């Protein structure tokens, strides 16, 4: 900010205290001017946001104020609702069946005459179901043996990959739920209990997260 010039009627040899006071006033004015500029910009942004509605932004119509005029209806395209002729048909992907049940009509639907024979190309209707999940538990029985020479007792050590009490698939699922799916630790713990029948505390979910992060650290550093 340009310093305020001294009034011509004042002598040029002002006392140092007066000059210092003038400098303080100049700095205060500059600071207040910057604040006013920032607040003016902020007010303009807020006013622009207040003027937004479903007709000029991506906001849903339910967020509009009562006085907002509804958007004009779009002109009709002349097409019927639903899929248009020639559009690619969306079909569910058929999977290799685990069980096949053959169904044959017993009688004719027109005259009720008994029917026999086989269809060389029967219609296929599949029912997809989630498999029943039961925990797979590996139990380590660590023997404690005493040395016949010195009498020292030695216990077999649990493998490092089994130290947490949960296998790599359980760790990967926990990391997927808390990472990509953004599920909380308590939600992940509840899902493990409900779907897999596995007791998994929120603290253990956090521990598995850290183990996964450490395992993926070299990959992240190379990326």
From TrEMBL:
It comes from the Bacteria. Keywords: Coiled coil. Residues 50-61 have a biased composition (Polar residues). Residues 22-92 form the DUF6444 domain. Pfam families: DUF6444. Transmembrane segments: none annotated. Residues 50-98 are annotated as: Disordered. This is DUF6444 domain-containing protein. InterPro entries: DUF6444 (IPR045618), Transposase-related (IPR052344). Residues 22-49 form a coiled coil. Residues 88-98 have a biased composition (Basic and acidic residues).
């Amino acid at each position: 900010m340009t310093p305020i010039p001294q009034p011509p009627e004042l002598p040029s040899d002002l006392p140092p205290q007066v000059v210092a006071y003038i400098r303080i006033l100049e700095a205060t004015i500059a600071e207040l001017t910057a604040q006013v500029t920032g607040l003016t910009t902020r007010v303009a942004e807020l006013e622009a946001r207040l003027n937004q509605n479903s007709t000029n932004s991506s906001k849903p119509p339910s967020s509009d104020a009562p006085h907002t005029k509804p958007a004009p209806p779009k002109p009709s395209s002349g097409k019927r609702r639903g899929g248009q002729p020639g559009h690619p048909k969306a079909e569910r992907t058929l999977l290799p069946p685990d069980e096949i049940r053959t169904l044959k009509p017993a009688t004719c639907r027109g005259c009720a005459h008994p029917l026999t024979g086989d269809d060389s190309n029967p219609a296929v209707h599949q029912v997809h179901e989630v498999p029943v999940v039961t925990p797979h538990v590996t139990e380590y029985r660590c023997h404690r043996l005493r040395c016949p020479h010195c009498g020292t007792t030695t216990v077999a050590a649990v493998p490092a990959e089994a130290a947490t009490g949960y296998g790599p698939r359980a760790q990967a699922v926990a990391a997927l739920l808390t990472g990509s799916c953004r599920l909380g630790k308590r939600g992940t713990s509840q899902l493990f209990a409900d779907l897999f029948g596995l007791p998994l505390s929120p603290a253990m979910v956090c521990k598995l997260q850290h183990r996964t992060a450490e395992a993926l650290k070299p990959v992240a550093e190379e990326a």
